[in-house]
Amino acid sequence: MRYRRGLACLLLGLVGCSSATTPTSQPQPTTNVIAAEPTSPAATIVPTVAATIAPSPEVMSELLPQPLYAISSQPNGVQIMRLETDGNTLTSITNEPNGVFDYHVSTLGQIAYIADNDLILVDGLGQNRQILVDGPTIDPQADTNIMHRDQLNTPRWSPDGSSIAFSWGGLQIYNLITGEQTMLQSHTSSRDSALADIYDYSVLYGPNSWSPDGTTILANAGFVPEGGNLVLFDLATSEPLTITIDGNYPCCHVAWEPDGSAINVTNEAFGMFPTGWWHINPSTGESKALIDGDNAEPFQPVSSVFMQPDGSHLAFVGTVNSSDPMQISAPLTLSQVGLDGTITALRQDSQTVGSVLWSPDGSGAVIVPSMMAETQLQWVPSNASPVANLALSGANMQWATTLDQ
């Protein structure tokens, strides 16, 4: 292995970092089915395309393939911002007094987000706001155990837009059609006598993503006080399947293949976790290294693969030798990885890449060009066209869905 850096905020990162919020009061979650209290009857929020997808404002030029969302620091706190296809026209989607904690966009264009410890639903332009789950008030000075128990995190839509998985006292699912809220897996209580006096929980659960067919949820399992793994939950049986990579936590970019046949795990940052690219079999949990970026020269860090129609992949790939200056994150080049594993650079330049959002058509990617959580976003085409700086600094990028597509 090359070198390892210290672990910082890994645990909270697995299910969503905690922050001080001042939400409204609601009973605490239990391991049983929880009765939801939506602000309007469940029948009024059945997802439909006509009701939820909003048209884009007119723009003068086309740079991006679709409008883009990101969370961004604003004068009134962290909010969801929308950037139109010209790469310049900005709209604030939320105006939450205490900011937005996390969000996710459905295939029908609706946005679910966490603010004031509530799970909130809006349409693609931030209108028709509804509180779906009213979380408990958390004192800003609350201790870690209260945060673990009471904080809502990581909303993740099902592929059909009918349900939202999220973390609150464990991994839960909210059904928009029925209004039912179900606990799939509770946080695990601490049984280690050496830690039980400090921490109430030993494992925290939250959703990472749904399988493309909606039958399985890939969950983050965060160990207390540090570490973790990935766990697959079959929704038909609730049976868990734990995933590791050679005994290590699978980190840091996770994405399903479009057909659900595999889960891709990539990591470009030298440090605590292995770098490279792994295929995970969702049926067995077995992992296979497609690019082992850590154990043989030249080392090859990889960030965020994207499958193309022919089965090849796009990815940001780097090349590092032991004689190179020590660094956590090496510059990466947008490349194509063929079916035979051949890596072909599609651009002559390289970028420092913090996170990646591929265009649905593979024409390019929006990147955070830094390991920092929030910097000016860039559009990197999958050809020799120039890199474009976007009029938005942010993180957690997601594509919008609009009527005019």
Q: What is the average per-residue confidence, as pLDDT, rounded to a whole number?
A: 85
State the helical fraction.
under 10%
Detail the poorly predicted runs. 1-44
What strand line-up does the widest sheet have?
Answer: 3-2-1-28-27-26-25
Task: Count the E strands.
Answer: 28
- Beta percentage is 35-45%
How far do the termini sit from each other?
46 Å
The radius of gyration over CA amounts to 21 Å
Q: Strand count, sense and closure of the main sheet?
A: 7 strands, antiparallel
Oligomerization status of the protein chains: single chain
Number of helices: 4
Which outline best applies? globular
Helix and strand composition category = mainly beta
Family: Belongs to the TolB family.
Pfam family, one: PD40
InterPro entries: 6-blade_b-propeller_TolB-like, WD40
Protein name: WD40 repeat domain-containing protein
Summarize the structure.
This protein is mainly β.
Give the tags.
globular; 5% helix; 405 residues; 39% strand; seven-stranded antiparallel sheet
How would you describe this structure to a colleague?
This is WD40 repeat domain-containing protein. Belongs to the TolB family. With 405 residues, the protein is mainly β. It has 4 helices and 28 strands. The strands form 6 sheets. The chain has a 7-stranded antiparallel sheet with strand order 3-2-1-28-27-26-25, with no helix packed on it. The protein has a 5-stranded antiparallel sheet with strand order 12-13-14-15-16. The longest helix is centred in the middle third of the chain and has 7 residues. The termini are far apart. 44% of the residues are buried.
